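Our preliminary data section would be incomplete without showing what the modeling component actually yields. Below, a chain of 835 amino acids is followed by its predicted structure, encoded as tokens that our downstream tools consume directly.
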Amino acid sequence: MIAFEPGFIYRVSDFSKLNLIEKQVLAALNMNKDNQETKNGISDLVVDLDSPERDILFLLDGSDETLTDFQAMKTFVQQVVETLNVGENKDRVSLVQYSQDQRTDFSFNSHLDKEAVLNAVQQLNHKGGNLRNTGAALRHARRSSFTEASGSRRREGVPQILVLLTGGRSGDDVSKAAVDLKKDKVVPFCVGTRTADLLELQMIAYNPSYAFSVPTFHDTGSIHQQLVSLVKRVPRQQLREKAQSSIDPSSKDVVFLIDGSEASQPRFSDILEFVEAIVTDLSIGNNRHRVAVVQYSDTAQTNFNLNRYGTKHDVLQAINSLTHKGGQPINIGSALQYVRDHAFTPEAGSRIRQGAPQILILLSGGRSADDVRNSVRELKEMGVTIVAIGSSDADTLELQTISHEPRYALSVADYGELPAVKQNVLSLLRETSHHALHSIELDSKKSDIVFLIDGSYDSRNGFEGIRAFIQRIVENVNVSHNGDQVAVVQYSRDATANFYLNSYSSQYDVLSSIRTMRHKLGRPLNIGKALEFVRDHVFDASVGGRGADLASQYLYLFSGGRSGDDVRGAAQTLKAKGIKTLSIGTKNADTLEMQTVSYTPGHYFNVPNFSNLQSIYASVENKFRDSQTATEILTDTSTAVEELQTADIVFLLDGSNYMKPNERLVLEFVLDFVKKIEIGPNNVQVALVQYSAEPAAEFTLNRYSRKEEALNHLRNVKLMGGGSVNTGRAIDFVRNTVLVASAGSRLQQGVPQVLISVSGSKSEDDALGPAGRLKNAGVSLFAVGVNTADRSEMEQLAPGARYFLKDVSDFLPVRQQVLSVTTATRGSVNPSVGK
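Predicted structure:
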């Protein structure tokens, strides 16, 4: 790869389009421009890729366990030093050994030529000690080694690099010490033997790819070149004094969203004069007020962005030269979404992250042809203050809905009367104060957000789409040690963390790591195992997990196919821990499986492929924001029951002798299920069929119109008995005899059709063919088994929708899944049963 990192690769159709990427390139040259973590009046990190100086500290495990490997450790250090250009104004080297305590063998200012450093390493004696306290050693490095007294040039911007060599797991906590080092802009690399804890090494390292594992220290030659290459890539931290006031406290970002439809053309000059009049009264400048103009009709287009013009003269000239857009009808909803995504962004010049008030002035000449509510809510959640001005043809209630509050909705007879509301607008603009926006500052609503990415071979073409999507999400959260935390994990056969929740404490660092992460690859896709990994190793307190009591817990799952293992158990335990899962699957993913994993079926989103992720961003973001208001996990089916207004549900019970030991369990399951749903001809209808060699209907869908009648029948049911199990014949019987209009089926009215098959043994006839015909007819099939059921057959009959009953504690989760998935299928029923 030629580029320093994948994020430094840009594409244009030809060189005449280079101006399109100018801002991106400039932003990359000042990578930490938006980082707010400044110390003692010092400004942010600025990249200088040609740094001639480095301060490199080798932190060596000197405990008793490394005695036999100590010479190999020294050899590795010497090999790295050989590649450096050691000198007072060049590279400097320090070395510390540790066990239960620390010993500085030499500091950065002890040896100022390569030969002296190599000799000092050669003469090292093994420290010894029966403990290995890596956390204390990292604190010592920060407080004693990376200091001016020890020769560190951190305040001069020289890269600060730590290379840790350890032979085992630390005896004390390393997490806080690692975070503190990174806050001081120290870049740690880790080399550990097979007895070291890889997760611990990845936590300490600047990012997990900077952690290396070798069988023994005699094998470090295999990673020597790679480590040296990464060390030499660490950029210079050129420091400069921060400007006393980079942004005027009275500054605002003002976006005019003006009616450019066909109907507004006769009065377009009046609109422009009004905009000019407002701008004339503003103090325009890069560090004062900024202005943008967007026109809309059926679509929206930017005339100029907030960062386009830096003087009032240029802004007024640009407004005066605007041409009318044209088009119809007026879609205000999509126009509001457009300014959210394209005008109020840092790339377009918005200073939302610096707390500059974000103001939208909307001019509307009529009622919107599309829904405005979601777009309005998203803008207000961002902290955008909306002033809505409408002509007599506009909808007053709609304007009030859009505006910041009703008094921010202003009316004129027509656009020619706009000067009458000029002073009102200016007065409202003065009311806005300099503030930090609540979409960025989530107050006490801090979150732990984990992205679980399909890293399998099959997702290789969609990986860049996933990367761009999660970058966009991260750009809208408040990453900090006491705010939102982010982790990224990839999975295929197994799962690997790219970084953990406590790896980074700034948005810049998170985005940098996402930009440089590589696709994992591998087969198959084990979602269940991956869910267990994030539950046990990523949301864990040792790597930054704060628990549902202290922070909201979110998991974004991306899947491009069906799981090779069972997801049910892991999904249930994640929900029990209060972790809300939002799942995104491609056309190859299993819908029922993804809905099972999701917090609710409504938390599942589908795209044809990962290249289409941006099309669902707003929906996913809305669901994330909605989830933030839900403080506890569903503990009953009340929500699902409220949503499940109608369904036709058939219980198909294996009544054979094989089920006799579990008779009470399965009958109680059906009874408990029916108690929790509303029975009636306009609500849910239920039927019950038993079978062994032959099927028989206990009662059909139209038999009972009241819940108590159905429950009375169910209380008196006993299994029929029999030595044969013909599940296929029973399924055909349900399709041809029970789920038909004459027996009460409401398929033709679009009511969901559900079959819940409860079995205790493998079918003696072909069940797959009848099950396929049933599903092709639009019926959702759920397989519920007791401990004697054939798991393989159940998976084939109902992929991703098979459940097991061990005792009554399983009733609730099984019922929740069936009701939730049934609710999600409402309106998508294929009316062809029995044909």
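The radius of gyration is 32 Å. Residues 38 and 476 are 21 Å apart (CA to CA). Preliminary results of this kind motivate Aim 1 of the renewal.
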